[in-house]
Amino acid sequence: MFFIDTIELEGLGNRSYLAGGREAAVAVDPPRDVDQVLAAAARRGVRITHVVETHIHNDYVTGGLELARLTGAAYLVPAGARVSFARVPVSDGDTVTVEGELELRAVATPGHTPHHTSYVLREQGRPVAAFTGGSLLIGTVGRPDLVEPRLTERLARAQHASAHRLATELPDETSVLPTHGFGSFCSSAQAEGDATTIGKEKSVNAALTTDVDSFVARLLAELDDVPAYYTHMGPANAAGPAPVDLTAPAVADAREIGDRLAAGEWVVDLRNRVAFAEGHVAGSFNFEADGKLATYLAWMIPWGKPVTLLADSPEQLASAQRELIRVGIDRPAAAATGAPQEWVAGGDALVSFPRSTFAGLAERGTDGVVVLDVRRDSERGSGYIAGSVHIPVHQLHQRLDEVPAGTVWVHCAGGMRAAIAASLLHAAGRDVVAVDDGFDSATEAGLTVVTG
């Protein structure tokens, strides 16, 4: 008998896996906070004997090296990956025994990266699951443009070939267990569903239902923006990430918070966007702890700039720290928890800005105000409010001077990114209204939405 446990990394849209038998297990693409994997192994009562990477990741810092060090496990990394640490190089066809008749077989599946390798879990010689990393995902494949622009088309063609290799070599009932594709920007398209098999993918995955030229043309045309912090992830993983420190940051009082703002550092309020709009420290930015905190904060903050975190509770702060170390933001400069009134010095007041909906915008009318759309280019392409200005949220901090004069009604697709943008604008001294609403409501509210 075997088991496969899934470790969700919801904020980044990824999954890691622990698979094994009665006594031994293998960890696949582990997150940097390896205590999760160790806890999963402890619950199963198994020893981690192997840690495997499907590729050198571009979207998060791996915990593989540290997990192997802590457990004494063999650390398997694709042979083609250039790394600066000792590891067991894995080539196509290599097989390792996990326990008894449970084994893992490496299958070269280039495309997401040139060295990408999938791992097929076999029980008594029968394939039962494929850990496909950034190769074959649920209904799509991993994007091929994260390594080198000159390699993108070649890697896209390799993705098609790799998907077909898996579909040809594995039985239809084999579970497909990807690392990416649950909201990750490493996915070439939005994946739908929670589980899949080789047989299902044969009927729904474009890589398996269209010819290579059509597949590549469509894949390249639909590629989305790449988060800026991806630039730092590959080198960090190739060098060998340092162990993490999840102890609480130094506590900042109101005076220190003000000093850090005055020094040009980032002070990030993790509370929900409703609470932030109602009252916050002037100059602070709102990145909700319950949103895609790691993705958007790491995407937008100048790399290496000190960040101070403000949270509702120690629990919220600890969760945020865990999210951020996964993308290389290792230690907040300082932090504070509690009520926002405690974060301002005596005599200073909290500041606020209004929130509304698309119906509220329609009632007010768009004349005389700036309607700012902070969605990505791909989203705006499906429709936008007539006369709106477009600056994606991840570019806004560098393009604030491009926002026309006047009160800014800022919107995204659902409200979270609009809140981030509103906080940036408000910190810059602009009058702002955050539209906290789904974009589908724009047409229903009577606003003119341009399509096509």
From TrEMBL:
Residue stretches making up the Rhodanese domain: 261-352, 365-451
Gene3D superfamilies recorded: Rhodanese-like domain, Ribonuclease Z/Hydroxyacylglutathione hydrolase-like
Q: Does the keyword Heme apply?
A: no
Q: Name one GO biological process term.
A: glutathione metabolic process
Q: Which domain of life is it from?
A: Bacteria
Q: What is the lineage of its organism?
A: Bacteria, Bacillati, Actinomycetota, Actinomycetes, Kitasatosporales
This protein's name = Glyoxylase, beta-lactamase superfamily II
One Pfam family of this protein, by short name? Lactamase_B
Q: Which UniProt keywords apply?
A: Metal-binding
Asked if Lipid biosynthesis is a keyword of the record, the answer is: no
A single MF term (Gene Ontology): metal ion binding
